[in-house]
Amino acid sequence: MAHRYLWTPLQLGPVSTLNRIVFSAHLTNYALDGKPTEQHAAYYAARAAGGTGLIITEEHSTHPTDWPYEKLIHGFHRDVIPGYRKITDAVHRHRTPIFAQINHNGGQASSMFSRLPVWAPSPVADPLFREVPKAVSLAEIDEIVAGYALVAEHCAEGGFDGIELQCSHSSIVRGFLSPATNKRTDDYGGSLQNRARLLVDIVHAVRRVIGNRLALGVRICGDELIDGGTTIDEAVQIAQIVEATGQVDYINTSIGVATASLFMIEASMHIPPGYAMFIPSAIRKAVDLPVVGVGRFKDPLQAERALAEGHCDLVGIVRGQIADADFAAKARAGSSDETRLCLSCNQECVGRMGMNRWLGCIENPRTGREAEYVRRELSDNKIAVTLGRSSVAARKQVMVVGAGPGGLQAAISAARAGHQVTVYEKQAEAGGQVRLAASVPNRAEFGDMIRNQLTECRRLGVAIEYDVGVWPGIVDERKPDHVIVATGAEPNRPWWVPADAANVCDVRDVLEGTAEPFGNVVVIDEIGFHHATSVGELLADRGCNVEIITNGMVVGQDLGITLDMENWWVRASAKSIAQTTDLVPMGFEGTTLNLLHHPTGSQVTRTPDWVVLAVPPNPVEWLYKALKDAGVSVQRVGDCLAPRRAHAAVVDGERAGAAI
């Protein structure tokens, strides 16, 4: 049987998992007023229906002093219990066990929401929040322990099958365990046994409350990746201390500290899959408890291999199941080719969370809207039953112009609604700008977006015609009922570039091979994302001396949102790519590029061999306007509507196809 390890059940205390795939704990920002919502229930239920073996929810706060971000579930209030019941009932309908992760974030927080001092083992300020915490007293330690027990009791009453203690990447327990943040000299500081005392106290307190009815797990950080922090050797000893309590049923693992080395916890596509597997592998050799491994698993084969090689007993797959709720079911059915593979781009999951928005997915427009789709489907079914017929509109012939992410998603959405869809693409292959973006170093996985969409188009019977340019005459000839224009955008020539400048090109020209810059190259970054940095790396690899200049304060400033900034700086340094900020191009004098240092008003110059532009493009909207003027039923999506990023094109396409 394919994936024979993956589909083996496993006993975790009183709970039997359906398989070895775990939808591990991660933040969603779905909470309202400190309580779980209908969206939580629909979100987790979709993954349960999709066949995952075990679900572990996002963290539930154990104390009023812990409120690091706005949309946190306040597990210490009893009014969360009805919401818990909705979640667990929804998941249990699919025979899937669900655990609640409980936590106090400690010093990795701010007093902005709570208006209370932040608690921690010692007054060591977190590098992200930069707020000096209050070192907790012994009485307050007792209060922390009691808080964990209280929330565990609420979770048990709410129908959860188990409790996981978050002691890994953002936790007051991690703060006590780590020599970098625990400077105490009492019984809770100094030796590892003392630093682990709070964890042991919490384990015993929670087990007393839940008895043997619920499973109990502990999530441990295997390497904090900070100076003076916990490393794998101490993490193994912590796991042994946890096992020695005799009260714990499994150990989960993690890497990094959420506010210092987050880029390694939720690693982007620049980090290889399975990069953190050394942690569960080392812990599993030292303890008999089942161990969960994590680390950017993209597909079932990677998960199966980790199990087969004995690195772990279960595999945490989060972003893979965010992208495709049916990840496990497709793998089990042998339909892995139909799986919507996660891109590890971090744009709409991690990136949205960092901007205090609800979790979504760049390529799955249903993620984060599961409750909305459930309500819509229930409404459609009710109408269909009432009318005694299908509520789907009459089947229409739909023409989609452009096979980029927006056009393909529009085709998918329209075909899913029952329409006959044909996509016309002027190039020899699909993908648009995504195809180009995937051609640069370490960005190949971005191309999975188009692969995923083409797979879904084939499944739905969408026809695609390549090397076909579309103009109003073709539309008139083929007479579709509706047209969706997804013609994208084209490079923009800024005002300051002379019309006859032969050594100035757009990033797209470099990626398409129509321009081959050499020598000293200046890349102008006015977009602030991967455009300039990716092309800069590509040219540096070809032997160019590259300087990236931006009018902003940071080159590629939005790389911070997707957790790509730290590793970009490492690569840029290794490739000697210069980064210069606060400069605005003002024009050329011969071969000299004039730039304004806008904070001071001073003038600076460069004399490069080439200038490469990463600047906002112009929408290609002539076809849409011509069809609109001719009275054709037409919509436009993606960059030809307004040049944005890929997720916006996907959302546009989903809405346009569903609205026909």
Note down, in words, how this protein is organized:
- This protein is an alpha/beta fold and 660 residues long.
- The protein has three domains: 10-372, TIM Barrel (Alpha-Beta Barrel); 394-491 and 619-658, 3-Layer(aba) Sandwich (Rossmann fold), CATH 3.40.50.720; 504-616, FAD/NAD(P)-binding domain (3-Layer(bba) Sandwich).
- Helix content is 34%, strand content 18%.
- It has an eight-stranded parallel β-barrel with strand order 3-4-6-9-10-11-12-13, surrounded by seven helices. The protein has a five-stranded parallel beta sheet with strand order 16-15-14-17-28, sandwiched between helices.
- α3 (138-157) packs parallel to α6.
Q: Summary?
A:
34% of the residues lie in helices and 18% in strands. It is of the alpha/beta class. It has 3 domains: 10-372, Aldolase class I (TIM Barrel, Alpha-Beta Barrel); 394-491 and 619-658, Rossmann fold (3-Layer(aba) Sandwich), CATH 3.40.50; 504-616, FAD/NAD(P)-binding domain (3-Layer(bba) Sandwich), CATH 3.50.50.60.
List keywords for this structure.
660 residues, alpha/beta, TIM Barrel, Rossmann fold, FAD/NAD(P)-binding domain, 3 domains, five-stranded parallel β-sheet, 23 helices, globular
